[in-house]
Amino acid sequence: MRAYQLTAATEDFDFRDVPEPEPGPGEVVIKVGGAGVCHSDLHLKEWPAEQIEQLGLQLPFTLGHENAGWVDAVGTGVTEVEVGQPVAVYGPWGCGTCKRCRLGQENYCEHPERQVGFGGGLGRDGGMAPKMLVPSARLLVPLGDLDPIDAAPLSDAALTPYHAIKRSLPKLTAGSTAVVIGVGGLGHLAVELLRELSPARIIAVDLDDSKLEHALSIGAHEAVKSDDKALETIRGMTGGLGAEGVFDFVGAQPTVELAAGVAKVMGDLSIVGIGGGELAVSFFAVPYEVSIQTTYWGSVTELMELLDLARQGRIRVTSTRFPLDEAPEAYRRLAAGELTGRAVITPNA
What we know:
By secondary structure, the chain is of the alpha/beta class. The protein folds into two domains: 2-156 and 298-346, Alpha-Beta Complex (Quinone Oxidoreductase, Chain A, domain 1), CATH 3.90.180.10; 159-294, 3-Layer(aba) Sandwich (Rossmann fold), CATH 3.40.50. The protein has helices spanning 39-44, 49-54, 99-102, 148-151, 159-166, 187-197, 209-217, 230-237, 253-262, 300-311, 327-335, and strands at residues 2-6, 14-17, 28-37, 61-62, 67-74, 86-89, 119-120, 123-124, 131-134, 140-142, 177-181, 201-206, 222-225, 243-248, 263-271, 291-294, 319-323, 342-346. Strands 3, 5, 6, 9, 10, 17 and 18 form a seven-stranded mixed sheet that branches. The protein is globular, with a radius of gyration of 20 Å. It starts with a strand and ends with a strand.
């Protein structure tokens, strides 16, 4: 079968012919419905060979770390799912036995050294191929009546902001403000989640006017262009006090500085994007008692909660579909900032 892969460090992605996977004991093969195109993949191909090796990624591997599809085959001992069943793939793959993994938090597995990479599409073969091998049925969540193509981005593009937002909900009370910096693939879903989960006023921040317009259409109350006036504008909107929750889905140097500048005393600042920005922390550098955190993905139970929200029609991914052959064009458009929401590769469409 044909797969879209990272084949060598600092090289462009490429198509390769690979064998169809067969499940061993406890394993499951899914027929891929959709595989989300994530900006973090673009960072992968920028990493030198030393960094790839340090992170335990074995090249080549098939891209696509947010996936959903239908169970195609099961190995011996698998009873949790059945052939034909629509499922989402929980993306971060841990050891499955440490305390964090037993709590469903494989995103924070205590023994990453036991794993090859971080999951399918991040060191092991992901979903940008007609079929994908999942090492355990514990990593699959039933979709019910959700379309796997539409649901695929929920496993990362929605799960990641959901986890970040949930930990800040106690501060996002009536009269509070939440700032979402970067309202693309993850950020637009952060806007929807904030709308559904909190009474906070939502301020969307982006460089792209079309993305700001989209954010307003799905629940943002205010839209601010991410320029040299953004800090002053947002501070003005909050009466000079700043926002109780700031979520940076870019993580570049200008955005982390903006995030720190608009955070309120005793507020939360979550850096979710991996744009390489650094934030200086000292007594006078950030507001008093501001909590600063980075977050990575979310738990499998949080993915279950998200799927419930989607089944209720309370959140909906804005996406553009591409057949597998057009995966290079999807990544080109992502890099150029030409997409609204998420791009989804459909290997079996």
